[in-house]
Specification:
The protein is an alpha+beta fold. Helices cover 32% and strands 34% of the residues. It has eleven helices and 13 strands. A 13-stranded antiparallel β-sheet has the order 6-5-4-3-2-1-13-12-11-10-9-8-7, sandwiched between helices. Strand 5 and strand 6 form a beta hairpin. The longest helix has 17 residues.
Length: 351
């Protein structure tokens, strides 16, 4: 069996998860941030920070005129180029696709029916929790430009400190999703409110690890400034970082058919019984995979990932599964793919 670099599994999870949802928030981080906030009585309200963020990129009127976004992002990882396409509509349409030398993947929704393409001629209907993961990925740009859009999904949003983010003085905002999913900190420029990026901290067998996401290369399109570069720094990434560059960004250019359901999806949606039997499988046609089937170096990593997601509950698992299944289709045969198949298999057993 072909062997692969042990870090590649963590890297693929990082990339497929999308920038806003990369790692679990460390509990100690909240305590440190709250203590800092108590020492600083001059912190603005969260409403003020979010309002300034919108003004910094063009203003509320311009933001509200955005009815659709079409972005193409390119990144290079270990000599491999990955291209990601996202489409977003104010009316609820969403679409994501990834293209790499290992394979392609597609997910989308017309605002009512969410779907994922498993292979050349097989589609599945996504459940509600899985559809939210698709929404988060496709809404990445608009959510970071207009952070108040994230409010309905958040248990806590609080300005907790004023500190440096890179070379810039920033307001630090704690965010915690209602469903217990990945939380962390967002940073906004003290001078004009511009969103700068975010940090998220997770625990691993190697100790506490922090992922830092930095936004840059701002360009004005239709009166709104959009970031065209996202740098992700993480110990999980070979070389320590990856740069994602926006090669195409169009505002209000999508046609009415941009989110039309593929014909096979229409057929699935028309039959509840058929749709109920089309949830993605683990990709293992040869029977159930056992933990002992995995190479020793992968077994502990698989256990940790499964235990972490189980601890967050079924809703969190439902949100993660479509991205993991989407990623699986692009894996070459080998230990990485077998491990991901095992993880998906075990998570689907959670009721």
């Amino acid at each position: 069996m072909k062997r692969h670099n042990p870090t590649s599994l963590a890297l693929c999870v990082l990339l497929v998860a999308g920038a806003p949802t990369l790692a679990q928030n460390s509990g100690n981080a909240e305590g440190r941030a709250t203590a800092a906030a108590q020492q600083d009585g001059d912190l603005p309200s969260i409403d003020k920070v979010f309002a300034d963020a919108v003004e910094s990129v063009g203003g509320r009127d311009k933001i509200d005129q955005i009815k659709s976004l079409h972005t193409v992002i390119s990144m290079s990882v270990m000599g491999t180029t990955i291209t990601a396409v996202s489409k977003w509509s104010h009316e609820g349409g969403r679409f994501n696709s990834n293209e790499s030398p290992f394979g392609n993947s597609e997910m989308g929704t017309d605002g009512k029916v969410a779907w994922m393409k498993m292979d050349e001629d097989r589609y599945v209907i996504l459940e509600e929790g899985q559809a939210r993961e698709l929404d988060e990925q496709a809404s990445r740009h608009i959510n970071l430009l207009d952070p108040k859009r994230m409010r309905p999904e958040m248990e806590k949003l609080e300005v907790v400190a004023r500190e440096r983010f890179g070379e810039t003085e920033a307001y630090k905002v704690l965010f915690e999703p209602k469903d217990g999913e990945d939380g962390g900190f967002m940073y906004f420029d003290v001078r004009d409110g511009r969103p700068l990026g975010m940090t998220q901290t997770s625990e691993s067998p190697m100790g506490s690890q922090t992922t830092t996401i930095t936004l840059g290369d701002w360009k004005t399109i239709e009166g709104v400034q959009f970031f065209h570069k996202m740098t992700i720094e993480s110990p999980s990434i070979p070389g320590g970082s990856v740069e994602m560059n926006v090669t195409k960004l169009e505002v209000n250019a999508l046609g009415e058919d941009a989110f039309e359901l593929p014909e096979p999806v229409k057929q699935l949606a028309a039959s509840e019984g058929e749709a109920g039997n089309t949830e993605g499988d683990s990709g293992n046609a040869g029977g159930e995979i056992k933990l002992e089937d995995l190479p020793a170096v992968y077994q502990e990593r698989a256990r940790l990932m499964i235990d972490d997601l189980k601890a967050r509950g079924k809703e969190a698992i439902d949100r993660r599964l479509p991205g993991m299944e989407q990623m699986l289709s692009s894996f070459p045969e080998g230990d990485d793919k077998l491990t991901m198949q095992y993880i998906i298999q075990e998570l689907k057993k959670v009721k």
